[in-house]
Each structure stands twice: as structure tokens, then as C-alpha cells.
Write a structure and sequence with these properties.
This protein folds into 2 domains: 7-247, Glutamine synthetase/guanido kinase, catalytic domain (Creatine Kinase, Chain A, domain 2); 255-358, no CATH class. Helices cover 49% and strands 16% of the residues. It has 14 helices and 12 strands. The longest helix has 29 residues, at 226-254.
């Protein structure tokens, strides 16, 4: 792994959408090879066979050597493993686990995670239908050389019964600060659960969603056709986005002093902190991003702020600033990186005028 830089992988996978609320969408296809046990029950030799077969299939792709980068789990350092687990979704990895990611698109392939093959595509603005079509083309191309485990009655075999059938998992990343403030989320979570969907926080601390970030995803494949599932998820996501945008307008109109105070405190703390915990940083950035999206703060450098917001967890922070960070120094380094970035992005005098005029 020493010869492979993970910086392009991190940069590639941490891009977020220019739209408010719906930050990204991820489609995952899971496949297993016929005649071999699931990775978690396979021998090291059998897992090595899976890796070999997947690599050979990938090498048949046009421009493979120029466009795909291989990251073997067994040769990775601990920080690199943390990064691959977080961004590539390496579930139950082993020494034979390998991640290949495309240097230009938003695709990565994992061999020997919980299942033999995991095709994953994260995009910021494309529709779920288009993302699935892109993955389908890749999965079918590799399927010309690989034999997937498939049953005419139950569909594609997977280690997770929830995705058996289509072997499809869809996940939408949503930013929902106003719904958290308005306490509307419990009803939405309950409604989603009744429809075989889950709406849950990305990270939780003290029973609170860090950064007000949530994922909406499907929990079942069997008995549902693919077109209906994708359409249904899109419709539910649109309703949640609309509810969040309405809640933001109400919050700004009815609680202007609270919003103005929150934005001002966030700017002050992020620009002057000496230490910054993940919990506090995620909360403060959530307020700033919402203020930018609602036109209260200047929108320039929003992409950089979004990327830093994504990089606040320890396993990503080192890749963002390209240095090894001891865990004991995490809060200090996070504060230093945030202060330096905020100095580039927001001039206090401009930010103060924008807040006072817009709220």
C-alpha cells in the first residue's frame, strides 16, 4: 500500500452536492460468485481465489491500468484501513480484501468484504436511476467473465438477507438541522420504518445526530421491483427535503434572534478555537452550511467547507491535511485545520454584515 496514495481516493469520495439538504446518493450492488462460500465463511485460499477472479475481470476493462487504482487491505496501515472502512464500506474486511477505485468517476469495487463483490457508486447530483444504470453496465461487463450466484426464485444470493433478491442497497445523505430543531424527525422516522425504509443519523453522540446528518435507505429487496424501489425512494426523499426547507423558512422567520446568535457563535468558535471535539465541530459546521445554503452567509468556498465538514472525523482528518495525526492530538489538529480554513473562507466583517442584513 505504501506505493499507493489514498489522497485521491479520499478527495474523490468526499465531494458533496451543491444543493441544500440532499448532499449525495449512493447505490450499492452486492454479488457473490457461484460455487464459493460467503467471504466470512471462506478459507483464505478461497478468498484469494475471489480476489484473483475479480482482478482478472477488471483487467479486461478498457483503460484499466490508467483509470483504476488498487488498494489491498492486507498491506494498508491502520489510518489507511480506517479510511477504507469509512469511505469504501469495507464490512468485515480480511487480509484478502481489496478495494479498486476509479480515478475519474465515483465508483469503487470491494472484493472479499462481507460478500465477494461490492459495487459502489456515490454521486452528488445524478438521479438514482442514472447511478444504477452506470453500475449495471459495469456489473454486467464483469459478469461476462464472472459467474454470479443466482436463483430464479430468490434472486442474487447475499450474506445479508435484507438485500437478497436484487442485491441492491440505496442510501441518500440528508442534512436536516431545521427538522431536528422543530422535532419533526420522530414522525418521519416512524413513517419511513412502516414503508421498509430507515432514516437514521450518520453518527450519534448523547442521543443527538452529529451535524444533523441522516441517511435514508432501503431495508428490504424481496417482493419489490427495482424501478418501484428507486422511484419510491426518490419520492420519499423529495418529501423530506421539502419538509426541511419549509422548516428552515419557519425557523428563520420566527426565531431570527436564535438563528443569528447561533451563526455568530459558530463563526466565532470555528475561527478562534484552540481545541475542537468532533461533536462540537459537526454541530457548528451544520449551522454554517445551513446559513450558506439559505443565503445568509457568502456562498464562495462552499465546496471547501463541505469537504472539511466531511473530513472532521479522525479517520479522515489526516488525509485532508496530509499528515499523520496522533489520536491524543486529534482535537488540537482539528481546531488548527478548521481555523486555517475559516480564515480563507469567511472574512468576519463580511460575514457579520450578511448575517445582520439577512436574518
Amino acid at each position: 500500500m505504501a506505493s499507493v496514495s489514498l489522497h485521491p481516493f479520499w478527495l474523490h469520495q468526499t465531494r458533496l452536492s451543491n444543493s441544500a439538504v440532499r448532499l449525495s446518493q449512493t447505490v450499492t450492488i452486492v454479488r457473490n460468485l457461484e460455487g464459493l462460500p460467503f467471504s466470512m465463511r471462506a478459507t483464505a485460499a478461497q478468498r484469494a481465489t475471489v480476489t484473483k477472479l475479480v482482478r482478472e475481470a477488471l483487467e479486461g476493462l478498457e483503460n484499466f491500468k490508467n483509470e483504476w487504482i488498487e488498494c489491498p487491505w492486507g498491506a494498508a496501515s491502520r489510518p489507511e484501513k480506517d479510511l477504507l472502512e469509512t469511505l469504501a464500506g469495507c464490512n468485515q474486511p480480511c487480509d484478502e480484501t481489496v478495494v479498486w477505485y476509479h480515478s475519474k468517476n465515483f465508483i469503487h469495487i470491494v472484493a472479499n468484504s462481507a460478500d465477494h463483490i461490492r459495487f459502489n457508486l456515490t454521486h452528488t447530483d445524478s438521479s438514482l436511476k442514472n447511478i444504477r444504470a452506470t453500475l449495471d453496465a459495469l456489473e454486467e461487463r464483469l459478469g461476462e467473465k464472472l459467474t454470479y450466484a443466482f436463483d430464479p426464485k430468490s434472486g442474487f444470493a447475499t450474506s445479508n438477507p435484507h438485500v437478497t433478491g436484487m442485491g441492491l442497497h440505496v442510501q441518500l445523505l440528508l442534512h436536516l438541522p431545521a427538522l431536528c430543531f422543530d422535532r419533526q424527525l420522530p414522525k418521519l422516522i416512524e413513517a419511513a420504518s412502516e414503508m421498509h425504509l430507515e432514516l437514521e443519523p450518520v453518527r450519534v453522540a448523547d442521543d443527538k445526530a452529529l451535524g444533523h446528518l441522516f441517511v435514508l435507505y432501503n431495508t428490504i429487496n424481496l417482493g419489490i421491483d427495482e424501478k418501484s424501489l428507486l422511484t419510491y425512494l426518490e419520492n420519499i426523499a423529495e418529501k423530506i427535503v421539502a419538509a426541511e426547507l419549509r422548516a428552515r423558512k419557519v425557523m428563520i422567520a420566527e426565531h431570527g434572534d436564535f438563528v443569528r446568535d447561533g451563526i455568530g457563535r459558530s463563526l466565532g468558535l470555528l475561527g478562534n478555537c484552540g481545541k475542537l471535539t468532533l461533536e462540537e465541530a459537526m454541530h457548528l459546521f451544520s449551522i454554517i452550511i445551513m446559513a450558506i445554503d439559505e443565503g445568509i452567509l457568502p456562498t464562495h468556498k462552499r465546496t471547501l467547507l463541505l469537504r472539511l465538514w466531511r473530513a472532521l472525523p479522525y479517520e479522515l482528518l489526516g488525509e485532508f491535511c496530509q499528515e499523520d495525526i496522533p489520536s491524543s492530538d486529534e482535537d488540537r489538529v482539528r481546531a488548527a485545520v478548521v481555523k486555517a480554513t475559516m480564515a480563507q473562507v469567511l472574512k468576519p466583517s463580511v460575514a457579520k454584515r450578511k448575517v445582520s442584513r439577512a436574518v
